Structure formats: structure tokens, C-alpha cells
Amino acid sequence: MTFSNKLIFWYLQNDRDLPWRKTRNPYFIWLSEIMLQQTRVQQGLSYYLVFTKEFPTVFDLANASESKVLKLWQGLGYYSRARNLHATAQYIASDLNGIFPDNYTDLKKLKGVGDYTASAIASICYEHPEAVVDGNVYRVLARHFGRQTAINSSLGIKEFKALAQELIDPKQPGTFNQAIMDFGALHCKPQNPLCTSCPLQNSCVAFTTNTVKELPVKEKKTKVKQRYFNYLVLLTKENKTVFTERKGKGIWQGLYEFPLVETTNSVEESELVYAAEFKKYIKEEAKIVLFNKEDTVHKLSHQHLHTKFWLVKLDEHKDAEISWDTLQKYPVPVLIANFLEELDTLNGYF
After folding, report:
1. What's the domain count of the chain?
2. Contact partners, residue 298, CB within 8 Å, separation at least 6
3. HhH-GPD domain spans which residues (predicted)?
């Protein structure tokens, strides 16, 4: 039995009962694939169900505001995915009359759609033999064939794509792609893979050479940048605060946050009040209380945010236009959402 046949046989006995497996509608397949990029199925499933209920068609998604899309996406991270999702929905609804491209080349032209997503849609929806390569696929192929090329190198990306393309079953490419992804997620896991019961054990190079833990190979990660955030959580006599949309192309574009003072290191109140950004926001008499005595460390892929939340009570502020009671309706980073959930109200701190 060939590699692909063994995988498909395993999959037919072990496939997960997931809603996007019950359709070939490209809208739902696209939605699930975008959501599951860098996200575990267990986490992404609840978001998928919310999105498909709220936006049952690509037209519904296209007609929604970006703020609403970001709010429903809140907690999934990598928010550029949500913005690209919304932009692509608008393009498909307005320029393509709601009809998704039916081939890999045109799918890949869509904003936010790369090789993996285009291959998944083309194979699952249209039975085109386009191999998917994600983290699970890299792991299965590297271990089974004993490939030492770094999977995050330009050479590795080409090598593993070509290998996956050689192996795909042209008669049932969608099933093969889902099979190899599920096999990597459930059986050939990153830690504690189920090698003793593996149907591919006899032909697995990593198993026979005892190199399972060493594969796949990755090049060293980019150095993680340490950043120090100081959020000024304002509260006026009228129970209003300053809460604005984050602009620019950096992290959290389109999400809302309190006034931010970024420093080169963790600071005390005596240092904070002399910072130029602090003086820009707070020009009148104010009472300041530090909410978290220890920095909250929020870890992103290439940066760690060491964050302090400073509660600032003052009579009024010219930019305080948002009622404290309405903050929950705005899309925010998880860092802010966790703070708001923990704080609940400012009144007990002054």
C-alpha cells in the first residue's frame, strides 16, 4: 500500500467531525482555513461557528463593518487575517458577484490567501491536485522521509512543497490533504507522537533512525524584541475615558486601546510622569494608581510586551468621549480584554 493510500485509510477511520468537513462551499472552506492559520482547531471552532451564524454568506461578511469583524475575531490573534478576510469578502461580493475563483492561480491572487489556503480550497472544493503544506504536513514529511532541510528556509519551503505534490493522490486530492493534516495533528504530534501504533512505522526514517525528536529541523528564530507599555486608563467625573483606534501598520491595527506611553524599560510613577508622552495626555491635576504591581507580559511571535496599567482619575479630559460602560462593544487586543475583565470598574481604586 502506498504512502497516500495508508494515510487516506487512516483518515477514513479517524477523521474529526468538523462542520467545514461537511461542505464543499468555498466560502466556508476559505473561512475555516483563514481562521485555522496559526490557531488550534479547538480554539478556532467556536469562532467559526460564530462567524458562520453571523455571516452565513460572503455578502453578509462583506456588508459588515470592519470593527464588527474585528470584535468577533477578538482573541484569535494575528488580526491582519481578519482585515484581509473582510477585504477579500468585499472584493468577491462586489467584483466577482459572490463567486469564488475555482482554480489555484486565481485563488492565490486574493488578499490574505497564500499557497496553503489556495491549495486547500482548490483541492477540497474543486478536486484539483494541489498539495497543502502546513506545520502538520512539514512534520509528517520530515520525519517519514528523514528530510533535514530547515522547514522555515526558502529551500525547505520549495523542497517540502515539491515532495507533497509528488505524493498527493490525484483522484482524491482533497481527502489526501485533509488526511495528512489530521495525521500530523492527531498522530504524528510535535510532542509524544504515537509511533508505536503508527501505520507508517515500517517506512518511517525518523522512527528507524531514532530521530523523531530532532525532526523537523527549524532555523533559529528571529530575536524577540522586549517592549514596555504603560497604558493610561482615564476616568473622568462623568465616567468617561479615552479609548481610540490603533492606526498604522504595526500590531493591532484597527483595535482599540487606552492612551499608550511606551518606555525603554519598566518604570515607576516618578519616572512615568516626566515622560513626554505622559505630559501630552495628562496636563491637569490627576490621581494615579498602578493597577498591576508586576508587569503583565503579553507574548507575541517576535515581541514581548511588558505592560503596566495606570489608573488615572481626573475631573475632565478634552479627549474623554467614550463612556466606561460601553467599552465592551469595541474590538480590543486580548491584553486589553483581560485587563477590562479583571478590573470591571475603576470606582473601587480611588
Report:
1. 2
2. 304, 305, 307, 333, 334, 335
3. 35-186
If you count them, how many residues does the chain have?
Answer: 350
Domain co-membership, 229 together with 209: no
The residues assigned a catalytic role are: 33
Residues 178 and 273 in one domain: no
Choosing from 161, 180, 214, the residue where a domain stops is 214
Asked if residues 118 and 109 have their Cβ atoms less than 8 Å apart, the reply is no
Residue 340 lies in a domain: yes
Residue type, 198: C
Q: Which residue has the cell 483518515?
A: 11
C-alpha span between 146 and 131 (Å, rounded): 19
Structural domain contains residue 284: yes
pTM passes above 0.70: yes
102: in domain = yes
Q: What domain range is 268 assigned to?
A: 225-349
CATH number where 308 lies: 3.90.79.10
Say how far apart CA 121 and CA 304 lie, in whole Å. 34
Give CA–CA dist 116/49, Å, rounded: 22
Residues 32 and 112 placed together within one structural domain of the fold: yes
User: Is 168:129 a contact under the CB 8 Å cutoff?
Assistant: yes
Residue 187 CA from chain centroid, whole number: 23
Q: Are residues 62 and 204 in the same domain?
A: yes
Same domain, yes or no: 28 and 132: yes
